[in-house]
Amino acid sequence: TPTDTVVAVHGISFVVSPAIPPGLHGTEVHGLSHACDWAPTLLEIAGIDVSPGSEPMGSIDGVSLVPMLSGGSSNPRHEIPHSVPKTNGTGVLRQNNYKLIAGFPG
User: Fold this and answer.
1) Long-range interactions of 59-65: CB distance < 8 A, separation 24+
2) Distance (Å, rounded) from C-alpha 52 to C-alpha 63?
3) Across 35-49, 59-73, 85-99, which has the greatest mean pLDDT?
4) Closest CA to 16 of 5, 27, 31
5) Cα–Cα dist 66/85, whole Å
6) Interatomic CA distance for residues 93 and 67, integer angstroms
7) What contacts 72, CB < 8 A, 6 or more positions away?
8) DSSP H helical segments within 49-102, as ranges?
9) Residue 48: exposure state from Cβ atoms within 10 A (0-12, 13-18, ≥19)
10) How confident is the model at residue 85 (pLDDT cuts 50, 70, 90)?
11) First CA to last CA across the chain, in angstroms?
12) What average pLDDT does range 64-72 have in this prediction?
């Protein structure tokens, strides 16, 4: 049984949009993303301002993945919480290629 300390999270998604340049259709993008990134990504594709603090974004935690998906820049997300501290005090945070395990795993 996997624990929080050995978890490997891989999600498969696809995006179809005129915002994606034709040269990138059918390509794979390998980068960090979190479920909370879908709202700002889809809103930006719809033409809505998703800059921090703007309406309707307010203080949402997600970041738009459009720059990465459109081939314009690197991944805007650098960290992902795999788990938050539970009753046993263990938490896991991934930052780029590193994983921080806090508490007493196992």
Assistant:
1) 60/36, 61/34, 61/36, 62/34, 62/36, 62/37, 62/38, 63/37, 64/37, 64/40, 65/31, 65/33, 65/37, 65/41
2) 9
3) 35-49
4) 27
5) 31
6) 24
7) none
8) 66-69
9) middle
10) low
11) 11
12) 80
The mean pLDDT of 32-36, rounded to a whole number, is 82
- Which range among 3-17, 26-40, 86-100 has the greatest average pLDDT? 26-40
Angle at 17 between CA 33 and CA 40, to 5 degrees: 40
Alpha-carbon distance 34 to 57, whole Å? 16
**Does the pLDDT at position 104 exceed 70?**
no
Amino acid at position 24, single letter: L
Q: Which two tokens stand for residue 19?
A: 């915002």
CB atoms within 10 A of CB 67: 15
